[in-house]
Amino acid sequence: MTEEYTEEEFKIAKKEMDQLVYESLKDKDVKPNVMFAKTSEILRALKLSKGMIKWARVNSLWPMQFGLACCAIELMGFGSARIDAERKGYLLFRGTPRQADVMVVAGWVTKSAVPEIKRLYEQMTEPRYVVAFGECATCGGPWFESYNIVRGIDQVLPVDVYVAGCPPKPENLFEALMKLQAKISGKIED
Ligand code: SF4
């Protein structure tokens, strides 16, 4: 069973820990308050470098390795040397959602796949973005009247950029990426 601590015991433990930290750092050049800065100070520093963070975010988008149907073939084309997307900051496809911040929904979305797609989205790092690539991901495409196809991924996830076509070309995805970058940097609105 977990032992319960009283508030008083926590205060004593915190005091002892502070003393330990002070003792271990007093002979060093680094001042304790630099390493243990207050949250407000960290926020102030972040505000100063807000522009830098935005610049880094815009130019280092990490897409998830993920495809649903025929549009995914075009997604593979997008990853090829001919497109060379890295020159614009669209980096390597990541094999895990935890290392990705862009989901390109390429293909039709079946109702049975929705829970899995949602789970992948929720596992991605924040802030995260969604591109609806092709007619099927945008509105259900040729299957919009089918009993098992969702009429657009925007019924499930918030979409940032739509790409028209059946299938769209890899170049269209490149353009969509540039729109996404403009949106993240605040040059265009929703
Ligand atoms: S939009 Fe066309 S090419 Fe893309 S997944 Fe749908 S049917 Fe296939």
Describe this structure in words.
- The chain has a 3-stranded parallel beta sheet.
- It has 190 residues and is mainly alpha-helical.
- β1, α6 (114-123) and β2 (129-133) form a beta-alpha-beta unit.
- It is elongated.
- 42% of the residues lie in helices and 7% in strands.
- The model has no long low-confidence stretch (mean pLDDT 83).
- α5 (71-78) packs across α8 (170-184).
- The protein has 2 domains: 7-57; 60-184, Rossmann fold (3-Layer(aba) Sandwich), CATH 3.40.50.12280.
- The structure holds iron/sulfur cluster.
Describe the SSE topology:
Elements: H1 7-25, H2 32-35, H3 39-48, H4 50-58, H5 71-78, E1 102-106, H6 114-123, E2 129-133, H7 135-139, E3 161-163, H8 170-184
Parallel strand pairs: 1-2, 2-3
The structure holds iron/sulfur cluster.
Can you tag this structure with a few keywords?
mainly alpha; binds iron/sulfur cluster; three-stranded parallel sheet; elongated; Rossmann fold; 2 domains; 42% helix; single chain; 190 residues
